[in-house]
Design goal:
GO molecular function: nucleotide binding; oxidoreductase activity
Radius of gyration: 23 Å
Strand content: 15-25%
Number of domains: 2
InterPro entries: Gfo/Idh/MocA-like_OxRdtase_N (IPR000683), Gfo/Idh/MocA_oxidrdct_glycsds (IPR050463), Gfo/Idh/MocA_OxRdtase_bact_C (IPR043906), NAD(P)-bd_dom_sf (IPR036291), TAT_signal (IPR006311), TAT_signal_bac_arc (IPR019546)
Pfam families: GFO_IDH_MocA, GFO_IDH_MocA_C2
Shape: globular
Structural class: alpha/beta
CATH class of the largest domain: Alpha Beta
Largest sheet: 9 strands, mixed
Protein name: Putative oxidoreductase YvaA
Keywords: Oxidoreductase
Number of helices: 14
Number of strands: 17
Strand order of the largest sheet: 15-14-13-7-10-9-8-16-17
């Protein structure tokens, strides 16, 4: 890169830092990025992206981050470059340097990387994100943010300490549905909510009784293309099994967060943010089927109690996944038909119902970018202005890249996505122990339950991974 181009990029990124003073700090090594490969956008106007996790979900995330030409991958890191979806990104960006270890990638190319995407199994989100943030890199991390409550709290503190742009990948937060929900709260359609029903239909193998097991899988030959030790990262290293990699790791307590940790980030996210839920004070298991120490339950129903919060009344949130996941809607919220019968609302496989204290009507929403509706539908007409949906100018990935360039802000920074993740992980602990738990919101500890508090902290990291837990 010529001295002139270096100065151009340096000047631009310094101006971006000034434009977002107090939110974004751009250290010196962020100002000398590599020249763009396709030449469509000048290097001075482009974010250089380090990609941690190239296949699987990243097969979509990376193109989304780079769609408008304002971001360009300069480094690919994956523990298995033969996994599903990896080839899509490799073919599109054939000259990008490849690494197996994200620590090596950041050490060797730190001066050329402005931001990183972390799209890996849940148990490896934390060390990759923490190291990148400590080096001044902006970070995009898929949901749920972390594998433990402690890790989520530490990333929220790191966001403040290092002053970087952050985004958790719950894409509905940058959708028209998000703006619609915000308007419904502002205009009082969503008001005095005292109960929320949330649900998710069964999906992964562990929710099929015929496929379940209670012992860790027997070891298999590690594929030649896979670095199994790096895949395990800070978590306990079990013998390799194709049940873990490349897809089904979500079913295991050791590596994933089950259906609640996975889909909950797309289902209760609006409720959590706009009703300012914070953390529950009590969690009660209502139905935990086939609990064991290896897999998440076959079915899981639980209730979380949230205290009054400012103008918001106390609220009970009930979560159901697996069998009998759909809530029962009271007749008063069903639509009366010409023949006098009552029509059930179409709830779908995932979503929420919000109940107002006055019982006049309820609000339903699906997941991700699903819009909200009023039930019974006959009550929607009077709220049609609030129910209007407008599309935001930038999607979730685009808003992250824009914020990295000092233009606007992200919708799910870690102070939002991390707080949501904490709530989800409290629910996961309730699923794991299958017992009622009382939680102190001030101390962020369970009351009189050492086992639950140990799960808050998560297991100690393996040798060689401890340093990432000492950075904040």
């Amino acid at each position: 890169m010529s001295p002139r181009n270096q100065r151009t990029r340096r000047d631009f990124l310094k101006k971006s830092a000034v434009a977002t003073a107090g939110l974004t700090i751009l250290p010196p090594y962020l100002i000398t990025g590599a020249r763009a490969q396709d030449g469509k956008v000048p290097p001075s106007r482009r974010i250089n992206l380090g990609v941690i996790g190239v296949g699987g979900r990243a097969a979509r995330v990376v193109p989304e981050l780079c769609a408008n030409g304002k971001a360009q991958p300069v480094a690919f890191c994956d523990v298995d470059f033969s996994a599903n979806g990896v080839q899509d990104n490799l073919e599109k960006y054939p000259d990008v340097r490849r690494f197996t270890d994200f620590r090596v990638m950041l050490e060797e190319m730190g001066d050329d990387i402005d931001a990183v995407s972390v799209v890996t199994p849940d148990h490896t989100h934390f060390p990759a994100a923490m190291l990148a943030m400590s080096m001044g890199k902006h970070v995009y991390v898929e949901k749920p943010l972390t594998h433990s409550y402690r890790e989520a709290d530490m990333l929220m503190r790191a966001e403040k300490k290092f002053g970087v742009v952050t985004q958790m990948g719950n894409q509905g937060h940058s959708s028209g549905a998000y703006l619609q929900f915000a308007r419904m709260v502002e205009q009082g359609v969503i008001h005095d909510i005292t109960a929320v029903e949330a649900w998710k239909s069964p999906g992964l193998f562990f929710m099929n009784a015929a496929e379940r097991f209670s012992q860790y899988p027997k070891g298999e030959t590690v594929p030649e293309t896979l670095d199994w030790d790096l895949w395990c990262g800070p978590a306990e290293k079990k013998p390799f099994s194709s049940k873990y990699h490349p897809f089904d790791w979500r079913a295991f307590w050791l590596y994933g967060n089950g259906m609640l940790g996975d889909w909950g980030a797309h289902i209760i996210d609006f409720v959590h943010e706009f009703l300012e839920l914070g953390q529950p004070t009590q969690l009660t298991p209502l139905r935990i089927e086939d609990a064991n120490d290896v897999l998440f339950p076959l079915s899981s129903h639980l209730k979380m109690k949230f205290p009054a919060r400012g103008a918001h009344p106390a609220l009970d949130l009930t979560w159901r996944d697996g069998a009998d996941y759909l809530p029962r809607i009271p007749d008063s919220f069903k639509e009366k038909q010409p023949d006098g019968s009552l029509k059930e609302p179409d709830l779908g496989g995932a979503g929420t119902v919000l109940y107002r204290a006055d019982g006049e009507y309820a609000i339903t929403r699906g997941s991700h970018w699903g819009n909200s509706s009023v039930i019974p539908a006959s009550r929607a007409k009077e709220h049609e202005k609030a129910l209007e949906v407008e599309s935001p100018s930038l999607n979730h990935a685009e808003s992250f890249i824009a914020a990295c360039m000092g233009e606007g802000r992200t919708r799910s920074p870690f102070r939002v996505g991390g707080d949501l993740t904490k709530t989800l992980l409290l629910g996961v602990i309730c699923q794991r122990l299958a017992e009622e738990l009382n939680f102190d919101r001030k101390t962020e500890r369970f009351i009189g339950n050492d086992r639950a508090n140990a799960l808050l902290d998560g297991p100690p990291p393996r040798d060689g991974w401890e340093q990432y837990y000492r950075m904040v």
